[in-house]
Design brief:
This protein is an alpha+beta fold. It has helices at residues 22-28, 33-40, 55-68, 104-129; strands at residues 71-74, 81-88, 96-103.
């Protein structure tokens, strides 16, 4: 949990839909477009004015996640809250996702540092799963 006066704390007993969360989009990126379509059935109600509610638009976002490795929630699950996430596939086990959630007014300024930290975590996980040369 952040040491900032204004912070975002995930509430685990109030799950949000995968299409509106950075960690959910990271997990969706591990599925095929056909699997995502079957899972969501184009049923994506808005949680905020920024929530992606179009399956084609979501599939485009997922294609970008697959290409650059990062997923985003830009006030999609809650107004004033943003997140960046990564998928962490684990061979032989369920995949995982990790996201950093923060107030929207800090998002742009902190994004490069958060992405760097998430990439370091991803590389550490990869090294654990298959030893690295480092």
């Amino acid at each position: 949990i952040s040491d900032q006066a204004v912070r975002v704390v995930p509430i685990h007993d109030r799950p949000k839909p995968v299409y509106a969360m950075a960690n959910g989009k990271a997990m969706l990126s591990l599925l095929t477009d056909a699997q995502i379509t079957a899972l969501l059935h184009d049923q994506m109600p808005a949680l905020t004015p920024q929530t992606t509610v179009s399956l084609p638009a979501l599939l485009q976002q997922i294609a970008e996640v697959r290409a650059n490795g990062f997923s985003y929630d830009r006030e999609e699950h809650a107004e004033g809250v943003c997140a960046v996430g990564i998928a962490l596939p684990v061979p032989g086990r369920s995949a995982h996702a990790l996201s950093v959630v923060l107030p929207s007014y800090r998002f742009a300024a902190r994004l490069p540092a958060i992405q760097q930290a998430l990439e370091e975590v991803r590389q550490m996980c990869l090294c654990i799963l298959s030893p690295c040369s480092k």
